[in-house]
Write a structure and sequence with these properties.
The structure is a single chain. Helices cover 24% and strands 29% of the residues. By secondary structure, the chain is an alpha/beta fold. The strands form two sheets. Strands 1, 2, 3, 4, 5, 6, 7 and 15 form an eight-stranded mixed β-sheet that branches. It is globular and about 50 Å long. Strand 4 (29-33), helix 1 (39-46) and strand 5 form a beta-alpha-beta unit. The N and C termini lie close together (5 Å). It has seven helices and 15 strands.
C-alpha cells in the first residue's frame, strides 16, 4: 500500500496544510480516508481531481468531512460528467449532513454518492480489507485498520485513549495517529490524544512506525509533541506533512 497525506491539520486548516485527508492506494485502487476542510485543493495537487475510487469518513466533524460537500460540484457538474455515484462509507447521518452542508434545502446527493453505514467490523473496499471500531470521541467516530496482503496500516481518527484503538493498531506496520493535545496541561477528557499517549498506544500495540497527525499547530508545539511521543515509543516517529508519501 501507499499512503499519501493530503491534509493533516487538526480542527482547522493550517498555513501549510488542509485538514485530515489520506489517500491509500493498492493494486490501482484509491481509497480516500476523510475529506476535511481544504483537502480538495490538496487532492488536485498531490493526486488528481478524480483520483478517488471510494471514500471512508471516520466521523462527521467538519475537519474530517466538509470537502465531501464541495466535491459534489466536481462530480455532478463536470463538463464530461455527471460521474457515477461514488461509494462512501460513513457514520449514520452522513447523507443528511453532507446534503444539508451542500445546500440548505437538504437536496439529496444520492446522484453523487452511494452511502454505506459504518458499524464495528471488517469488510472489503476494493482490494483492501478494512476493519473499523468505535473510538473515544464525542460523536460517532471510527478508527480504521487497512490490510493488503500481509501489510497493515492503522489510522486512529480522533480519539482519546481506548481499548478499541489498541485492537485496531495491534502489530500494524504503520500507525497514523492523532496527537492533538500537549502533555502537562489540563486537557478536556475523552476527546483527543497527547504525543505521549500516542506513543504509549504505539508501544502497547507493538506497531512498527508511528506517524503523528492532526496537530493543532496554532495552539501547540510540534517539538514538544514529537519529544513526548518519542519518549514513550522506541520505534521510528515522524510528524507528517501535506504531500508526504509512505510505502506501507
Amino acid at each position: 500500500m501507499r499512503l499519501t497525506v493530503l491534509g493533516c491539520a487538526g480542527s482547522f486548516p493550517g498555513p501549510e496544510a488542509a485538514c485530515s485527508a489520506y489517500l491509500i492506494e493498492a493494486d490501482g485502487f484509491r481509497l480516500l480516508v476523510d475529506f476535511g476542510s481544504g483537502s480538495l485543493s490538496a487532492l488536485q495537487r498531490y493526486a488528481g481531481l478524480h483520483a478517488v475510487d471510494a471514500i471512508l469518513l471516520t466521523h462527521l466533524h467538519c475537519d474530517h468531512m466538509l470537502d465531501a460537500c464541495t466535491y459534489v460540484v466536481v462530480r455532478r457538474y463536470a463538463p464530461d460528467g455527471p460521474y457515477p455515484p461514488l461509494p462512501v462509507y460513513a457514520p449514520a447521518g452522513a447523507p443528511d449532513r453532507i446534503a444539508t452542508a451542500y445546500n440548505i434545502s437538504g437536496e439529496s446527493v444520492d446522484d453523487v454518492y452511494t452511502f454505506y453505514g459504518l458499524q464495528p467490523g471488517s469488510f472489503p473496499i476494493g482490494p483492501l480489507q478494512v476493519t473499523v471500531d468505535r473510538v473515544n470521541h464525542p460523536v460517532e467516530t471510527y478508527g480504521v485498520r487497512v490490510e493488503h496482503g500481509d501489510r497493515v496500516l492503522t489510522y486512529s481518527s480522533d480519539t482519546a485513549p481506548c481499548e478499541a484503538l489498541l485492537r485496531l493498531a495491534q502489530d500494524a506496520h504503520v500507525f497514523l495517529c492523532e496527537a492533538s493535545y500537549l502533555d502537562g496541561v489540563d486537557n478536556p477528557p475523552d476527546l483527543h490524544l497527547t504525543g505521549r499517549e500516542a506513543g504509549e498506544a504505539a508501544t502497547k500495540a507493538g506497531v512498527g512506525r508511528l506517524l503523528l497527525t492532526h496537530l493543532v499547530t496554532a495552539w501547540g508545539s510540534e517539538a514538544s509533541t514529537f519529544e513526548a511521543a518519542a519518549s514513550s515509543f522506541d520505534g521510528p516517529v515522524e510528524i507528517v506533512r501535506a504531500g508526504a508519501r509512505y510505502e506501507v
